[in-house]
Fold this sequence. Notes:
The complex is a heterodimer of chains A (152) and B (737).
Chain A: E1 2-6, E2 9-13, H1 21-28, E3 47-50, E4 53-56, E5 69-71, H2 73-76, H3 84-91, H4 101-114, H5 120-127, H6 137-151
Parallel strand pairs in A: 1-5
Antiparallel strand pairs in A: 1-2, 3-4, 3-5
Chain B: E1 16-17, E2 23-24, E3 37-40, E4 46-49, E5 52-54, E6 60-64, H1 73-85, E7 93-96, H2 118-145, E8 153-155, E9 158-161, E10 164-167, H3 172-175, H4 204-208, E11 224-229, E12 238-242, H5 243-247, E13 252-258, E14 261-266, H6 269-278, E15 280-283, H7 293-303, E16 310-315, H8 318-324, E17 327-335, E18 347-353, E19 356-361, H9 366-377, E20 384-388, H10 402-414, E21 418-421, H11 424-429, E22 437-445, E23 451-460, H12 464-475, H13 481-497, H14 502-505, E24 517-523, H15 538-555, H16 560-566, H17 572-586, E25 595-603, E26 606-616, E27 622-632, H18 639-658, E28 664-665, E29 668-669, E30 687-692, H19 710-722, H20 733-736
Parallel strand pairs in B: 6-7, 11-21, 19-20, 23-24, 27-30
Antiparallel strand pairs in B: 1-4, 2-3, 4-5, 5-6, 8-9, 9-10, 11-14, 12-15, 13-14, 16-24, 17-22, 18-19, 18-21, 22-23, 25-26, 26-27, 28-29
Helix pairs in contact in B: 1-2, 9-10, 9-12, 12-13, 15-16, 15-19, 16-17
Amino acid sequence: MIEFTLNGQPVVFHDDPNIPLLWAVRDDFKLKGSKFGCGAGLCGACTMHVDGKAVRTCVLPVANVAGKSVTTIEGLGNPSDMHPLQQAWVDHNVPQCGYCQSGQIMSAAALLAQNPAATADDVDNAMSGNLCRCGCYPRIKAAVLSVAEESA
Amino acid sequence: MTTQPLSRRQLLKRGALLSGGLVVGVQLPGCSFSGPLPIEAADEGFVPHAFLQISPNNEIVFYCPSDEMGQGVRTGLATLIGEELDLHPTEMVVRSAGSHEAYANPEFGIQLTGGSNAVRAFYTPLRQTGADTRALLLNAAAIDLGIPAQQLSTDNGHIVAGDQRYPYGEFIATAATLELPEETPLKPANQFKYIGTEFTRVDALEKSTGTAQFGIDADISGMVYAVVVRPPVAGAKPLKVEREPVLAMAGIIAITDISSGIAVVAERYWYAQQGAKALQVEWEQIPLGNIDSATVKADLAAALEGDDIIEATSEGDIDAGLQAATHQHSSDYYAPFLAHAPLEPVNATLRIEGERAELWTGVQSIQAAQGLVERVTGLARGNITVHNLYLGGGFGRRGTLTHIVEVAEIAMAVQKPVQLLWSREHDIQNGLYRPASYMRISAGIDDTGRITAWHASRAGANITGETMTNMLPAMFPRMPKSMLTGLAGSLDYVFSNWAVDPSSVEGLHETYDLPNALVTHATVDHGLPTTFWRSVGHSYTAFAVESMIDELAEQAGMDPIAFRLKNTDGKPRMHRVLQRTEELMADYPLPEGHYLGVACHSSFFTDVAQVAEVSVSDSGDIRVHRVTCVADVGTAVNPDIVKAQLEGAVMFALTATLYGRIDLEQGAVVQSNFHDYPLLRMNEAPQVDVHLVDSGTEPTGIGEPGVPPLAPAVANGVYRALGKRLRTLPLRVTANV
């Protein structure tokens, strides 16, 4: 039994503690916004925040988040109350297929929480582990920088 | 969705006004299929035809007939119908249409999304549907308001009478009693309100908040999870399977043989994955098991020297053209197998209950998915509902639906709702590939720089026959297997021995004025499954053609753009694109140590030129800093989405240019995940400047045409940097020096 906080709510996971957090969140807690892309921590589609840090959850056993605070894309904002990054994503027409975008936004949000005035190089460094097959990179970068500049 | 068909009076050329929860039973004009439309009716919703539902509260739903895989088709098609309906596309609720022949792509005759044709093929039909619906609503409003229709106008979902505005939804009760007008005149382009303007994609909000539903997100009560163990060498059958140890593992429910391998079914995906990893299987030996990448390349090269070469195109007199040449030149080019690697691995969720089945997935042909479920389950087509959710990338991969066959076979075996998910390793190692291609171009030019002779030849596997082998069972679910095998076999035979598969050689000669041109082909198929890959044949032919054009320009002593201009007099659209490129390059700020490479290519009726700004490090790493992309896509329905597609195409193509290769060792794919099949990363992404040249034609292809010119543009830039021609993809400086 693993207890942790998910988007501000206490939750309990009862299955095998080796199961990756991604599948616990998707299949047990029914939050489907975080995606499976590679199963090896190589693409970033599964990115969530664990105690504020961007983490690849497809390779993170649930056991590792016991007592910790997990935030998913659903906890970051929602369609009627968007995080500034989500609004920037809409304004810049960022998504194409959209599959990687939850992970992209979670990585960007972790970056800006640490470094609100991130530069283009900071964005490259923080975001180059998030793959986008559609090639939305220029727009992702512009969207992140637009939020960074607002706080700069 | 409610799946009980409704027995209602048949309404010819009339819509239906409905009570909530009913499936619409409308006889569509000009449509022989009288089955119910796969539309879930809103309470008192009005369905004038297959594409719209209007509710009394003025909620207007557009049923999008093409599959959204990122290309922006929901926004594009909503814009077409919205333009004439007079309703802003972002104010519609856009849903994926179900399977019904009313939604067939006008060019393909079936529901299929590919070939960069959706906006082009639906350009007139959807505007006409919008215009006819608007006319119907005006007629209904004229009756209800007692004002002649000529004195009424419309504005963004409202009927306007003087200074009064009435939502369309107020007139649907009367509209349901009227005939849908036909051939209502369409707006001239200079009156467009939405076409040609930029606004937010209709799916941007869902996709920025994690609320967009992809196939993988289907979650059905009581479902079990399946992982399939497939042969490392495609097509091999299992000889021996050690089931017992895996059946004893936690969470495992069943192990079942299916046509493509062995399915491990478990209570969770995680357990199924653990079981699949532990399953010991001995596979049969098949001829593909003797093939390595080097064998493929050698066999393809040898085929161009052999006797089994057939002619695809012949124009003019190639010998006379060679005699007229002052310079002759010949080079060979090679492009490897490639995987699509959409970020969402293919998946499907199927529930079979009694005589009915329900499928949740994301595919490029909902109709094919339905047909495959029909074939495997034997259920009546009308009893199979398919929910086509967002596709987490397509690129051609989701047009061949072996995973739908798999999920249907598994669901039949275990008699439970099943979710099948491919791992990334399955996606890279057990999929379908862009075929490897060996190409040779021999050409002559005269002393004015005109191409006098052009012989382009390609060796490799074909795509169309194999794709048809996969599509035929879907299209003809009741055709006996023996007949299907015969049909598919004869297609393969035709394309190997008699006529060239157009997809294999497309792009080898079309872009330039070539008075004396010969295109030839040799089929060499080692048995690795192939399918369409974004831009299909153009993805490799453009590399050969545009590299050769650059080599010829050098022989002619001409600037690469000037040489291309010289040889496109008869191709006015491309000529104009090149002129614009030349203008843009006139004052291009080129940093020290950076070099420009040019390429252009016509595909899917669209003309694209790209200039890549390239540098090469001392250690041989190629870096692309900036790409200038000039394109004529005709009318750009949403210019910002067109730009996004061209930006994305550059990134997609740059992955293939710098990294993309699927290698075989003893017939098995070597690469397995993103560590050895890398995708371009943000820190490697070039700036992309898109310039649209509008020839004023109707829209032409958008999703694919940005891909082909990129690899040769980069290769030509590397040549400027190093003086070395790289004629093998992916580009490797050291390997080619």
